[in-house]
Amino acid sequence: MSLQITAEPLTAAAFAPFGDVLEVAGDYDKLINAGLCERYHDRAQLDFGPDGRAGISLFKAVPRSFPYECALLERHPEGSQAFLPMSEAPWMVIVAPDLDGQPGGPRAFLPEPGQGVNFHRGTWHGVLTPLAEPGLFAVVDRIGNSANLEEHFLKEPFTVLS
Questions:
Q1: For the domain that residue 13 is a member of, what is the CATH number?
Q2: pLDDT by residue (tens digit) across 130-162?
Q3: What does residue 6 show for φ and ψ, rounded to 5 degrees?
Q4: Cα–Cα dist 59/138, whole Å
Q5: What is the pTM of this model?
Q6: Nearest to 143 by CA among 61, 85, 56, 73
Q7: In this structure, what are the phi and psi dihedrals at residue 52, rounded to the nearest 5 degrees?
Q8: What is the mean pLDDT of residues 119-126?
């Protein structure tokens, strides 16, 4: 039987080894726009390396369902990558620690509506995994000439349960 893991709620503490949870949490930093807007300032550690720049792309991914079989993890050695959902549809985040250049034991998270994530540079993660339409995300990541994608096809896929 292949490895099975259960998706857990996304919290800043649980996700900290892999990156930042982007959400309206805690106190806002200041009021702006004539007092009509709360600014939650500088909530992610963006990293684009010395030869990269920030870019915003839009991704439209096909929704998946549970049980979900994961056979591919990837990482970005040259910079961070943020997934920002453009709807309140459910989605899933899969991550794994690095063990000598290979993905270690995976974890899966279920964000609440309004939560996004920023993967730190070099963090192994699953592909963008919406669980319902529209599957539309803004992605903030490194734009540059060097390769910034390393894919790892798992010899033994694992299954994520809801």
A1: 2.60.120.480
A2: 999 999 999 999 999 998 999 999 999 999 999
A3: -110, 130
A4: 6
A5: 0.95
A6: 56
A7: -115, 175
A8: 98
